[in-house]
Amino acid sequence: MNVLRKKRVFALLFVFFLGLLFYNSEWLGKWLYPIRFEQDIAVSAKNYGVDPFLIAAIIRVETNFNPDKTSKKGAIGLMQLMPDTADWIVKRAGYAEETSKSLHRADVNIEVGAWYLNSLYNQFDDNRIAVLAAYNAGPGNARKWLDSGTWDGTLKGIDQIPFGETRHYVQRVLYYYDKYAKLYADRFPAA
C-alpha cells in the first residue's frame, strides 16, 4: 500500500510538472487549437474585410473544421450555412447559382460565410457581439432583441439574450477568437 501511494504521488507530481512545463508553450497551444483551411480563411477574410480569427473561431465552434458536417436543422459545411440563407447570399452577392450546390467545399463555404459576416457587420454597425448573436440566432431575432431593449448588444449584457444557445455560442466563439489571435498573430498579421 505504501509503495502504491508513493507511485501515485510521484505520478501526480510528474503530471503537474509536465503541465507547468508546457503551460505556456506555443506548440502545445497550436496543437490544442489548430486552424485548418488557413489559405481559404485568409483570402475570404481579405475579400470581405472580416477578421480571419473570427472566421476561424466560428468554424471551430460550428464544425471543428469538418467540411462535411450537416446539422440536424440542415445547415451545411464548415460555417454551417442554412440553405435558404446561402441562396439569399448567392443572389445578393451575385455569385453563380451553382455556388449553393457547392457549400460542402471548404473554399466556397468560407467565401459565402465571410460575405455573410460582412453583411451582418453592416447591419449591426460593426458590433462584433451582435454579429455573432445574429449569426447564431438569425439577424431578425438579434435586431428584435436590440430594438426592444431586451439586450443591449454588449458582452457584459450577454445574460439578457433570450436564447441560451446563442449566449453560449457567443461566449465560445469569443473564447476561440482570443486563443487564435494570441497563437496565430504571425499568420494573419493584418487582422
TrEMBL record:
Pfam families noted in UniProt: SLT
Q: Where is the Transglycosylase SLT domain?
A: 44-148
Note the InterPro entries from the entry: Lysozyme-like_dom_sf, Transglycosylase_SLT_dom_1
Read off the PANTHER family from this record.
MEMBRANE-BOUND LYTIC MUREIN TRANSGLYCOSYLASE C (PTHR37423:SF2), SOLUBLE LYTIC MUREIN TRANSGLYCOSYLASE-RELATED (PTHR37423)
- Name listed for the protein in its UniProt record: Lytic transglycosylase
